[in-house]
Amino acid sequence: MCNEAALIAARDLNDTIEMKHFEQAIERVVAGLEKKTQVLQPDEKKTVAYHEAGHAVAGWFLEHADPLLKVNISSDLRNLLI
Asked: Which is catalytic among the residues 23, 27, 52, 63?
């Protein structure tokens, strides 16, 4: 985690590693990189949106699950849920 935070800080040409770099490192290590290359059809996007929303809802209500830290659904998926 520290190494990833250092890499992020270096890419931004920072002399020091700040908390924001650790937060970005945690997100990158835990959630992985956003996949921008895969093109999904609208029906596939809707399925993915409901699937990911299900993870968030289940994580929120399950007593012994890891705490829900962040939910991020891109705008094109968010529109499908409405």
From this structure: 52
Tokens of 52: 């990911």
**Phi-psi map region of 39: left, alpha, beta (phi>0 left; psi -120 to 50 alpha):** beta
Cα dihedral: 41, 43, 46, 48 (round 10): -60
Is position 52 annotated as part of the catalytic site?
yes
Q: Name which residue leads in pLDDT, 11 or 49.
A: 11
Q: How far is it, in rounded angstroms, from Cα 9 to Cα 55?
A: 31
Q: Would you list the domain boundaries of the chain?
A: 1-33, 35-82
pTM: 0.48
The one-character DSSP state at 43 is H
